[in-house]
Fold each of these.
Amino acid sequence: MRKIRLFFIVTMLLSGLFFNSCKKSSSTTETPVVPAAPGEFVGSLAVYSQATDTMLAYFLKKNYTRITGSLELYTSEDIDFKKYLINLQSVTGSVRLYKIRNTDLSFLSKVTKITGDLQISACPELTSLAGLSKLDTLTNNLIVENNPKIQNLNGIGLVKTITNIYLTNNPSLQSLTGLGSLTSILSGISIGENPVLTSLDGLTNVESIKANVDLYNNVLLSSLDGLNKLKNIDGNLTLTGLPALSGLIALSALNDTITSVSISGCNSLANLEGLNNLPHIKKDLRLVSCLSFKNLQGITKVDTIGGTVELNKLAAFSSFTGATVLKGIKKDLRIVECNALNSLDGLSKLDRINGDFILDDNLNLVNLKGVDALKLVKGKVQILNSDQLSSLDGLEPLKTISGDIDIYYNPKLSSYCALKPDTFSGIAYIGFNAYTPTWAQIKAGSCSK
């Protein structure tokens, strides 16, 4: 009996082993390990101090020429990177340099390809990108930020295509020279807080920017020279805090649609001359706090604006000259604190506003003449705080208002007779004017005093 029991146990154990062996072989697939190619360092090479430069010594000893991850040098300690990286030719990832004390980038002198970002941050002694003379491929972004002595981008002249350019807070950056081989930017550019930058020279061969152009707080930037060959911006043009910018003439080659134009704090800019070949603005046109801005010359081919038109705090704005073919605004028209404006002259072709029509705090607006073809406002009509407005003359063509009418705090307004829509779907709120009739009185003919 004891022999039979022992035989049974051994049989069960062997059966289990056989079953598990079969189960493993049927459900498990082996992933083959691909050995590194000759000269290939697999993974990222990161150095944070002299204590970790043993990795660099290992890199040199193995005679590596390629890195399949990133190269990250994050140290202000004295390390002879040129000694260790002398054979490096390509990085299949990003190169990030932070606080290194090198005076140039000659330790990357053999690198031809970076399949990621090139980031140079807070490097106290760099004056340019000298040393990158063989780099011809930079797949992602160029990021240059917080470098106190960089004056230009000389040294990276073979790169033809790049994804984004970010240049931020470089107090000695005077120009973008060094980018002369660039012809295409696959996404956008963001250039800001560079206090001695005077132009965009260096981008002189760029013909296409596929996303946004964002220029901000470059106080000496007086022109956009350098973008003279640019034919299209498939995104937003945003110009903010550029008090020396005197014109947009450098953008005269733009001949394709643009998403939005937003300009604020550009106190030397008088108009939009330079955008004369733009056929369409897909979304918004916003002009805010530009003290010398006078009119809309420069958008002479734009017949439709696909979003909101906002004119706000434009002390010198006196007419809509330039908007000679503008027929439609697909969202709001907002005119606020334009105190040199006394009428709406220049909007003679505008026949529809698909959003709100807002006039607020325009202290010298006398009447609304100039909108000779305006037939439709799909949102509200709001007229507020216009100290010199005495009548609504000019609104006679307006036949359809789908939203409310708000007319308040216009101390000289005494005539509403021009406001006689055939279709009005909202509610009229009228008060605190020189004459304050009800909507019923206006409709009945008691429209002036």
Amino acid sequence: MGLHPTGTELFLLVAGVALLLAVGGDVVARRYRVPDVLWLVALGVVAGPVLGLVPASTVLLVAPAVGTAVLVIIVFDAGLDLEGKILRPLLASAVVFAVVTYVAGVVIVTVLADAFLFPGDLPLSLFFGAALGASSGAVAIPVANRMGLLPSLRGFVHLDAAIEDALAIVFAGILLLILTPSGTFSTGDLAVAITLPIPVGIAVGVVGGVVWLLTLGRWQDRPFAALATLGYVLLVYGVTKLLLGSGIVAALVVGIVIANAAGVRRLVRWVGASGIHPSVRTVQTEVAFLFRALFLLFMGCLVVLANPGWVAIAVIVGLSVGLLALRFAVARALSQVHRVDLDWASTLGGVGGRGLTSAVVLILPISVIPGAQGLFLPGVLLIVGTDLAMTAWVYAVSRRGGGPTAPGSGGDLAKVRPILEGLAREDGGPARGPGVFDVPDGAPGNAAPTPPNPA
């Protein structure tokens, strides 16, 4: 009797291999900081276009939802690390850094894509720029957590990644509105698409965070609390999207509100002294890990194999390094006006790998723009290229050594300096480079410092 596996059996087989490969890739990533994106996308390419085990038509039904869910969970978890004492003095600088690097990245990628990758096809080039102009929180946030950064610098990376994620998705939505051949587009639609997402996302996120503190926050020691919180955050995302807001921003704000429950209590007296239980965050991290592994597998399955040509490869290699150099240049420029510490520039330049956000945005135009599936091969190559460049850059920063960060010279950094020094002492360990501290023996590499007791 021969073996005749069905499509379901083949999919589960490939998914099982993807999860095992993701776990192995995570071990490698923790030790050598090589993103596991590389292995999972490669498996998807083998399972999809090479062997035909996972058809692209099936992947397109589930990939956008899975990828978006991962982004929501990761951004929400990043918000939980942003306490007010770190957030307040760094928020404006993070917004400026994210907006400048994303806009400049979109322009550079679009111009080069229109000239060399998709000559004369401006819609494809614009979408390619919208997708690859943003660093990915799903890549940058875990790398920043594993580097043992000072809490302030780690929080800055979290904020920047979440803002760039939101900007990429909002800009892609605007492009879809303009390019969709439905004939119903109007100036009013464009105005709404530009002005509403961020403010509505912030408003819904604030309300959602307070509601969580009043309800689910009191049940964090109960069974299935993690799944309830996860479901709640996805619900907030869905409600925000129905109200034409940015669900990514809303998820970030919900996390920030929960992280600052003590401050919220001073404004809303019914809020109790509740917060996220560590076990809840552990479950959320594992659920995000599962979805992320599957999405990266799906991303590889959607690649259309072709010979990109030497010119395209040269452009992608140049962009892989150039996009990180752009981040470094912006950080250096902001340090001149005391918006970021000069010693942070090398780290901020390095944690700019592309990944999940880019892939989610690249999927959006497939049913709208002819030939949009051709975005995936150069997109995957650029994602892999930026991640390899990020790995080398971060390794060089970690190996550079040197004394502790230089004292700030004024502005927001002067206000936050005493807080940073206190948090650094809580983290423990000697300084081994600008803004980087070794994690104490026995502590996990991605563990956040224990916040001081508000009492």
